Amino acid sequence: MADKVGADTTLAILYYSAAFVLHTALPFTITQPFYVFILLFCLCYIILTSLAAVAYSGLLSFDIERAYYLIVIRFYTLFAGSWNTAVCFNRFTAIIWPLKYEQIWTQFMTTIVTFFILAYAMIFQAMFLQNPCWYSTSTMECVEYQVFSTYVVAISVILHALLGLFLIMGALGIARWKGILASQNVETKLILQTLATTTSLMCVGATKFIAMRKFYDGQIELHLITAQIGNIILALYSYVVIGGLFLASTSFREAYVRFFRCDSTCRTRSAKRRISQDRRGSIMVF
Question: Where do transmembrane segments lie in this chain (predicted)?
């Protein structure tokens, strides 16, 4: 019981620290249209962590509280998977077709992709909510259903991560073969950032998949431990997303630090270079 409380406390600290420190500043620092995906991630993260706070309020019964928390986490996991794939596709087009990037990612195209990111998670969630056990974990039948739903989500996340790796590695290979990498330093940072988020997502899916296998094998203790590890990695995912963008984009880093009134520490590069990078599409990760 003490270990569970400690794990839950760790998760709460990770999620709400990210919500207040990392994501609160984003709506005020995003000033360019190609950051629309990071803005979407930010808003969904804040909304979902706010909803998850109900599970810590003590207003719900223990059974409903667990089921409610699983619903929120499941939606966030599905959202992260589809969102990461969209970002990888965006990165793919920015590397392969840098001159056509703005023509591809018009307001209409960005809106359509945003719709599909949200619709993907909502459709999956709606399917799960058709079962009468969606709000309960009190019976073994309902527990098995909740485990099965997590199993499906884990497979979905793994597939998204594999697709993301295929897009990024394919784009890098084609770009190197054609010799079209405009800025080796910037491109390397962006590729590493996107690979880091995709690798984190793969770890989330893998740990959840292993956790579900341990449940079906009857190794409940290992199931619980692995599931908690997966939840912690999922909580760290937003740190990888924002941290990678912070390191890769000078304009984002300067705007972000200015929000916290630390202007003197963020002026590490000239404004001319920053504008040049942004206009070339070199930092168009999102």
Answer: 12-30, 37-56, 68-92, 104-128, 148-169, 190-211, 223-248
